[in-house]
Amino acid sequence: MTIRANAFPEATQWSEGERCAMKKFWPLLVRALPPDVIFIADPEGSIMGLGSAVGPQFVGNGTSEMRLVGALREILAGGHLGYEEIQGVLKDVLTLKLEDGKSNGVSESLLSAFLIGQRMNRETDRELKAYCLAFDDELGPAPVADVRSLTHYGEPYDGNTRYFRSTLFVAAVRSCYGESSLLHGVEWMPPK
């Protein structure tokens, strides 16, 4: 909701009902929510009005979380990060559990807000490259499927309002016959 309030076009920002609900319940939520969630909801202390100075003063715990909070401030304002900044944050947070079973010390809510916020802002090419390379470094190369044949289906997503999506069912039927299919979305397709 923070990104919608800060960076989305006016038609998709908060509705009047959402504003009224937050005005009514925010003072109660501030007393019940942990500081990291309050920060995510109102990082600069300017969206929700009166009630808390937690957001502007929140820095996180530990170096990894402090770096994540700094990046989140930019993301929640609707901004984009540089390649090196994303690489640095992801190197700090990608190993969610260390070898000894302990957590890396990064709040799951902050990490979730980081990943979701980047997606909502529609990451740039540089940001996407940083994600891909960071995950490649962490997980290794993607495995290659050993299949006899593969049928590739790509169709644009339009909210399922224009026509029936048959490819999902075609893929299911093909799998019953041992045939592999790859389904994915595309931004647009030329007419047939």
UniProtKB/TrEMBL annotation:
Q: Does the keyword Glycoprotein apply?
A: no
Q: Name one GO molecular function term.
A: GMP synthase activity
Source domain of life is Eukaryota
Regions annotated as coiled coil: none
Q: What name goes with this protein?
A: Uncharacterized protein
Keyword Transmembrane among UniProt keywords: no
This protein's UniProt keywords? Glycosyltransferase, Transferase
Query: Per the record, GO CC terms?
Result: cytosol
